[in-house]
Task: structure prediction
Amino acid sequence: MWRKGALPVSGTCPVTANHIKVALVGQPNVGKSMLINSISNSHLHVGNFTGVTVEKSEVLFDYQQYHFTVVDLPGTYAFSDYTIEERVTKEYLCAESYDMIINVVDSTNLEKNLQLTSELMSLGKKMVIALNMSDEAQKEGIEIDAPYLSQLLGVPAIKVSAVTKTGIDELIDTVLATYEQEHQEPKLIFSEPVEEEIAHIVAYLQKHDYKTPNTYRNVAINLLKNNQQTYEELHDNPIWTELQPILIEASHHIELHHDSNDLKEAFAEEYYAFNRGIIAETVRTVTNDVQALTPTEKIDNVLIHPLFGLPIFLFFMWGLFQLTFEIGSIPMGWIDGFFVWLGDTIGATIANAEIRSLVVDGMIAGVGAVVLFVPNIIILFIGIALLESTGYMSRVAFLLDGFFHKFGLHGQSFIPLVTGFGCSIPAYMSARILKNDRDRLLTLFVIGFMSCGARLPVYVLFAGAFFSQEMAGNVLFAIYMAGVFIGLIAAKVLKMTAFKGADEPFVMEMPKYRLPSFKLIWHTVTTKTWMYLKKAGTFIAAASMLVWFLSNYPHDKAIETLYAEKIAVATPAQAAVLENEQASALLEASYLGQIGKFIQPIFEPIGMDWKMSVALQTGLAAKEVVVSTLGVLYSLGADVNEQSTSLATVLSDNISFASAVAFIVVIMTYLPCLAASIVFTREAGGIKYFVYLFLFTTIIAYSLAFIAYRVTLALTG
Amino acid sequence: MKRLSECNKNALVKVVKIHTSGSLKQRLISLGIMKDVTLRVLAHTAAKGTLEIKVGKMQIALRSEEAKLIEVTDVA
Result:
C-alpha cells in the first residue's frame, strides 16, 4: 500500500533511486485520468465525454524505491492525427523518451479498445494493460479471463477499477515486474497473406544481418504499416534498394487480399479479426437477451427523442437558472450581514479614518460584493459538473448538431461552449477536440459570448435589482439564452465572411450514462469554488483597494472647505444631504472620476454614467471586479441612507432601467477577462487573433448596447 | 446500394463499403465502422440530420452527410 501517509518517500535519494517514466495511453473516456488520480491521489479533471484531457499532464509519485512519472495523454481511438489532442498523443509516443506504456482499456468494451492496443503492441515498448472499469464489467455480466488474455497477447493484463480503487497495487507491481524484465515481443497474429509477407521480410533482414534494437518481426510489421520512423531508419541502409521492391510487392498482396487500396484500412481489419479471436477466447458474457435495450438506450429513448429531446434540454437549463437564483439568494442575506458586521467590527478597531475607509469601503466592500455570489456560483458549477459527468453533454451535442450546423458551428462545438458557462479558459482549451482549424477558430471566437461564472454575479445583482424575486430566475435564463443566440448569430456572420469553407464531418462517440459520483462532483465544485474565493481574497481584494485609492484621491481641498462651511451653518437634516453631496463631488474630482469623465463621451450614447463606464473597464481585468467596483463606487458616493445598504437597492435607485439593460448587454458580449484573452491568443495561434477578437467583440458590444438602450428607452418612456 | 442514411430507427445492417478516403475514413475505422461490421440505428433527430448508431457496444453519433458515405446491406 502506498496511500498518502504510508508512502516510503523520504528514504529514497532522488539521484540514485530508479526513475520510471510511464505513458498512460488509451481510447477516450476509458478513465485514464481517474486511474492516475487513484494511483497517486492527484486531482486531474475527469468527466464522462470524449476530450476531457486535451493536453498531456505529468503526475509524480514514489513507490518502494522507485520514482514514478506518469504521463496522462489525451485519449485517442487510433494512432492518428485527426484532432490536435490525438496528435499530442501520437507525437509523444513516437518521439519522446519513456520507459513503458500502461494501456488503459474499458473492460465493458474490450473489442473496440483492443484496436488501439494492437497498434501500441507494434511500438516495441514494454507494456501493461489495465483492464479498467472491471467493477462495471462484472455488473454487466462480462467476465474477462485476464491471465489467459495476458498469455495470448504476450502483454500482462490486470483487472483494475479506478472508481473502487481495486487492483491498483497489483497493477503497479506488474508495471515494476515488467520494467525489470527483458522486453518481450507481443504476440500479434495476422492473416495468412500478411504473415507470409512478414516472414518474407524477416528472412530478408536476417540474410543481410540488419542491425536494429527491435525484433525483425517488429520491423517487418512497421514496414508493412508504412511506419515513417522505420522507413527513415532503413532508408539510408544499402539493403533499401533491394528491400523496396519486396515491400511494394507485399503491399499489393495485402491490399488485394483486403480488397482495399488503403493499407491502414487493411491493417484495421487485420486487428479487428485478431481481436475478435482474442475476445472469443477470453471474454464470457452472461447476457439474457441480445435484443434487450441497455439502460443507456432506454434513457436515450427519452432524452434524445426526436420531438421531446430539445424541450427537455431547455427545461433542464431553465431549471438550473431558476435554482441558481432561488436557492442562491437564500444565504445572500447572511453573507451580506456578515460583511456589514465584519466591516463595522474591523472599522471600529482602526483609528485612522483614511485606513479605515481603505479597509472597510475598499477591501471589505469589494470582496464582500464578490463573495456574496458564491452560492449562485456553486449551483451553476454543480449543474455543469452533472452535465459533464453523466454523459448527457454528448447527447446535447447530438440534439443540437442540426441546429448548430445551420449557424456554421460544429455539433461538437457544444462541448467547449458549455464549458464556457463555467469559465472561458478551459473552454478555449477544450476547443481542441475540433479537428478542423477553421471550426476551432470559429468556436474560439464565439466562446466569449457564453457567459462565464464570473459574469453570473453581475447578472444576479442586476436581475435582483431591477426585477421582482419571482421573475429574476427567468431573467437570468433569458440573459444566458440571449448570449447563446448572439453567439450563434456571430458564428453565422463569421462563417459567411472570415471562416468560409466546407463543413467538417461530425462523428462522435456517445458515452454510456453514468450515475454522477458524489465524491467527484463534490471535488470539482469545491475546487472551483475555492478558486473563486481565492481570487476574491487576493486579486479582487487588491483591485478593490486600487479602485478605492483611485476614487479617494486626490482630495479636493476646495470642495472640502466649501462643504465644511455650508455644513457648519446647516440644520442636522440639511447636513446629511450636504454630506451626501460632498461625497459625490469628491468622488467626481478623484482620479477615477476624472478617468470616468474623460471616457464618458464614448459611453454616453449607450446610457452609461461614468461609474458604470469605469466598472466596465475594470471588468477587463476580471469580470468579478465589475461587481466589486460598483460596490466601492456606490458605497462611497451614495450609501449614506442607512435603510438602503444593499448594493442592489442602491443600483436600482441610481441607474435607469434602460442603462441597466445596456450594461448587461455589454457584459454579455465584450472582451473576455485578461487571463482568458491570453489563453485565447495562445489557442488561436497569434496576437493578430486577439486584435480581431477585440475589434469583433467591441463592435458587437457597442452596437448591441446602443440598440438595447435606445429601444428600452423608447419602450419605457 | 443502400446507404446508412436511408436506414430507419432499429434497422440492423452490415457495412459493405465506406465510400470516402483520407482522415474521415480513418476516423470511421478507428471507431470500429469498417467492412463486415454490423450496425444498428438507435435514433435520429427530427429532421434526420443526425443519427445515432450502435457499433459493437459503442454508440456513435454522425451526420446524415457522413452516413451517406457508408454503404450497407440488411442483415437477414
User: Anything to note?
Assistant: Chain B has a mean pLDDT of 88. The radius of gyration of chain B is 11 Å. Residues 2-74 of chain B form a domain with the SH3 type barrels. fold (CATH 2.30.30.90). Chain B has one domain: 2-74.
